[in-house]
Amino acid sequence: MQEKEWLFSYGTLMDVDIQMELYGEYLPMQVASLSHWAAFVGQNGYLFAKPLQNAKIEGMLLQLNEKQLSITDLWEQVPLYQRERVHCVAMDGKEIPAWIYTKRKTDGMRHYGTQIAALEKEEILQEAAALRTEVEQNGTGNCTMP
């Protein structure tokens, strides 16, 4: 059995339809928060996170296996986003180490609310489907998607 990793999501990966497009299945999720971080909207319409004192991001902890984490790196366009370790607080108060995708040196408009991106969901689903097709054809190490 593959070991699972926790990922803190504050955007598109919280959406089960997008999960189904990317991974072909729904991921186990639980409500969590991340203190001293804030979500922002980038020029591309997607959210990104960076540290901000006295802020908090509400999101979800997702459990991913190694292949799903590799697909997520492609989806998050690493190194455009950086994957970092943080400590989230689950709804039961337990602190859980998790990955998060960040852009520490990027400017953007502070994001408030529950919208997963500043783009239409259909556009996001099309991008997710295109990535999944490329992964199925080329594997996670040979994708050319930006």
Radius of gyration: 15 Å
Report how far the terminal alpha carbons are from each other.
31 Å
Structural class: alpha+beta
Mean pLDDT: 89
What is the tally of helical segments? 3
Proportion of residues in extended strands:
35-45%
Largest sheet: 6 strands, antiparallel
Uncertain spans: none
Secondary-structure element string: EHEEHEEEH
- How many β strands by DSSP? 6
The outline comes out as: globular
**Which bin fits the share of residues in helices?**
10-25%
Describe this structure as you would to a colleague.
The protein is of the alpha+beta class. 25% of the residues lie in helices and 38% in strands. It has three helices and six strands, in the order βαββαβββα. Strands 1, 2, 3, 4, 5 and 6 form a six-stranded antiparallel beta sheet that branches. Helix 1 (16-23) runs parallel beside helix 3 (121-138). The termini are far apart. The model has no long low-confidence stretch (mean pLDDT 89).
Key phrases:
alpha+beta, 6 strands, 3 helices, 6-stranded antiparallel β-sheet, 146 residues
Provide the fold topology.
Elements lengths: L4 E5 L6 H8 L5 E13 L5 E18 L1 H10 L6 E9 L4 E8 L6 E2 L10 H18 L8
Antiparallel strand pairs: 1-3, 2-3, 2-4, 2-6, 4-5
Helix pairs in contact: 1-3
Give a quick precis of the structure.
With 146 residues, this protein is of the alpha+beta class.
